[in-house]
Every structure is written in C-alpha cells, then in structure tokens.
Amino acid sequence: MSCALIVSTSEKGKSFFADLIKTVGISNIVTVGNGSEARRILNRTEFDLVVINAPLSDEFGHELSISISKNYNAGVLLVVKNDIADAISSKVEDYGVFVIEKPLNRQFVYKSIKYICISRKKYLGLQSENERLKVKISEIRLIDRAKCILIEYLNMSEPQAHRYIEKQAMDLRVTKKEIAENVDLFSSYPDRDYVSLRNTISEYCRIPAEFILPGNGSSELISLLIQERAPKHTLILGPTYSEYSRELSFSGSTQEYYHLREERNFTLDVEDLCKTLENGYDFLILCNPNNPTSSAIMQEDLRKLIAFCADKDIFVMIDETYVEFAPDVEEITAIPLTREFTNLMVLRGVSKFYAAPGMRLGYGITGNMEFLSKMREKQTPWSLNSLGAFAGELMLRDHDYIQETRDLILDERDRMEQELQNIPTFKVYPAYANFILLKIRRDGLTSADVFEACIKKGLMIRDCSSFQCLDGEFVRFCIMMHDDNTKLLNVLKQL
Fold first, then answer.
1. For position 27, which CATH number holds?
2. To 10 degrees, the CA torsion angle through 401, 406, 411, 417?
3. In a 3-state reduction of DSSP, which class is residue 98?
4. In this structure, is residue 115 part of a structural domain?
C-alpha cells in the first residue's frame, strides 16, 4: 500500500497537502510537525512520497529533503517561499528534490505530486533493471571464470567448457551460476574423507555416516569389495548384471549361479537358497530389486538369509541400484540390516534413479568397521572427484525431484502392468524396479522380433536373450513418459 509523509509546522498546511495527496490515490498518510519527528518515523516506516512544508520549527527543511532523497526511495517535494525558491533549488535539485513556490496554486501542486509519483515509479523500475543487469553481469563473469578453470585444469576448449557447464546444470537441475560457483572445485583436492557427502548420504539413508564409503560409481566399490574379501567360492543370484562375474574372474573365485525360477515369478525361495549355500560358499551376491527380472526380496526374508549366512561365515553383497524405484523402499532395502550384521555390505549409486551415470558416484554401506577400513585403505585416494561429490549432495537433497520421479514411475508402472495383463501374447511379472520383464507366449514370436518391431517405432527395449539363467523368450523395457508408454503398448498389442 502506498504511504505518504507530510512534514509541516502548520496544521492548515497538513490538511491542504493531505487532501491533494488523497486525490492521486494515496490514502495512508502520516503527518508530523518537525524535522526530528520526521527522521524518527522515517527509520521505522517506508514512504513513497514525502512533502516538506518549509520552514519547520526546528530546521528549515532543505537538509532534511536531501537526507531523505539520499537515504530512502521516497519522492520528495519541498515547498518554500517564492523569494528563496531559486536559491534552495540550486542546493537540492541535484539530489532529485522537487521544489515548488509559495503562495500555492492547488492545480499546480496536484500536478507536481502526480509528477513526483510517476517519476518515482520510473526511477524504481530503472533501479530494479539496473540491479538485474548487475546480477547478470556478475553471473557472466562467474561463468567466464569457471570456463577458464575448465580450460586450464581439464584442457577443454572454450566451446567444450561452455557445453560442459550447460550439461551439468541440466543434469543436476540447477542454474549455470550454481555450477560455475563450484567449478573451482577442480582447482583443489576433494576432502579425502568426503565428510559433507557422507553426512548427506547418512541423512538420506538414515544410517550412521561412519558406515558409508563413497566411490567412483558402484563399479569401483564392487571391485574393491571383491578384492578385499578375496572369496574362494561365490554364489550369484541369477539372472543378473554381468559385472559381478567379471570382477570375480579377476579374484580367482569360483562362480556358480542360483537361478530364480520363472514358475515362481522369479521370487526367491529363501529356504532353498539356504540349502544351496551349505555347499561350501563363502560369498553371496544379490541384486535387489533384481536386474533384469524386476523382482524383489522383502527385508524380512533378507534378514533370515543374512542371519543364515552369518552362521556359515558367508559374506553378502547386495546391490540396490534400483531400490529407489520400489513402491515401498523400506520394505526391501537391506540398509537397516547393516546395524545388525557385520557380514553385509549394501551398494547404491546415482546412475539409475538420478539418471546420472556420467557422474560416477556410488556408495557402500556396512556396519563392519574393520572391513570398511581395509576397503578404504585400498581405495585410490580421491577416487570421486570434487564435482561428483558436490553433485551427489545436490541430488540426494533434491526432494522435489525424488518425489516427482517416484510418482511418475509408480503411476506409469502400475498402468503398464494392468494393460499388459490384458495382452495374451505376453506374461508380465510383478515389478519393483523402473523396468518390466515380459515373457513371450506366442509360438514363433521371438525376442528379436519384438525388439525389431519396437525399434521401427523409435522405441528402445532390451532383448533379454543375452542374460544367463533366463531361458526362453524374454524382453524388458524401462518405464518412460506417459505418451511413450502408450506408444509401446500399441506396438505390443499388434504383435
């Protein structure tokens, strides 16, 4: 609401100016009788217009007008006798004070007040634009400085540095300014202990920070874990991610698979797995939710399994790359179990849920402090770069993105499962990850056929024939945006 201050020793003057000010649309009017009162109230209240009817009882008024114009955003009208108007104007006009002469003409005073109000609005607009330009120039300088750092430390060209900043801003859902502010991280080593990042992960996972080991993607942590455990005889829950087998081949461990069975919709028979584990295994690898079946093991079943393994001196590695896509994360995550068992390490990363595979940020969680210390000793110092650590903190604290992503995946996955159940060509399995596994039921139709039909429509799906332990004709697809999911459904219905 607009507000005006009238400073006048004369009560008649206060009434005269108040009536005129109301005609320009300012109804909130404060009146005082001298300069001292005016100064006190100006420190408490912001005014749009100040009218000073000189002389005042304690000062003439021109110095007050200059002070107001210099220190406040109010328009100032100074009223003086005509015989001194020119002399006073010469003292105040450079400060933007508008001077009018007595005796007063009502119409002229009205036009003067109107002019001051219009001029003030224009001035404030220009002031705001000037501040905006200052901020913009500051941002440009900051981004240019960031480019110089990237060019110097990463040997990028100027266009490469520009594209890098733009891409990071897009991937992390922040401004280019925020990226630029932190690019100087390249010019210094990251905190070797990643204290800030571990604290962020601790809040995200509700687990003590000392349980956490960040790494250069979950791949580095898988390698470190296997190297340190040096297992002799490993059992892998299959079908699954091939990287486990690759790392095991470097360690000299024997490898065998325990097959999730299609007739059980790829859900785990915990008791049967425990019987298998009695055959001299010392290491068990699980991916939960499973890749590629999208099935999941519930936390209570995991507790039974890990307890059994603890009795048999079997170490358990659980890869939870897809766990954030589950309808209820707490229902299947093994992270709380790291408080109960020391034969367990849980691995996560940001490549899937946060769609940031290039960030190369993963983290492992275990309550086995001795084992964690040994892994840390073998880890290459500063394996996670400063920007990756910074980005990780931003992503794990981005609650809006987390909620929006979960809402999209859960809603679309439920819709797709319901629709697919009405297509007799395919069998659909319960899904906990961001993808759905389908078995082809129609004789003569192969996974390659389905893949080709989808590609022709610009849709990418996975032919699952390359997965070990997955016998038969299977395809897998990731949950996409609504329109793309509908497009995929239409293709599948026509096969």
1. 3.40.50.2300
2. 140
3. strand
4. no
Claim: this prediction has a pTM higher than 0.90: no
Centre a 10 Å sphere on the Cβ of residue 188 and count the other Cβ atoms it contains.
Answer: 8
How many angstroms separate the CA atoms of 464 and 266, rounded?
A: 15
Please name which of 179, 215, 199, 193 lies closest in space to residue 387, comparing C-alpha atoms.
Answer: 179
Judgement on whether residues 84 and 214 belong to the same structural domain of the protein: no
Q: What is the pLDDT of residues 59-108, one digit of tens each?
A: 999 999 999 988 998 889 999 999 998 999 999 988 889 999 999 888 88
Residues of 77-116 as b/e, b for ≥16 C-beta within 10 angstroms?
A: bbbbeeebbeebbeebeeebbbbbbeebeeeebeebbeeb
Contact yes or no for 185/179 (Cβ under 8 A) = no
Tell me the angle at which helices 176-183 and 106-154 cross, rounded to the nearest 10 degrees.
Answer: 50
- Read off the pLDDT of residues 363-382 as tens digits, 9 standing for 90 and up: 999 999 999 999 999 998 88
Query: Based on the domain organization, do 412 and 325 belong to the same domain?
Result: no
Predicted confidence band at 130 (pLDDT cuts at 50, 70, 90)? confident
Kindly state whether residue 119 falls inside one of the protein's structural domains.
Answer: no
Structure-model confidence comparison of residues 381 and 200, the more confident one? 200
Q: What is the pLDDT of residues 34-46, one digit of tens each?
A: 999 999 999 989 8
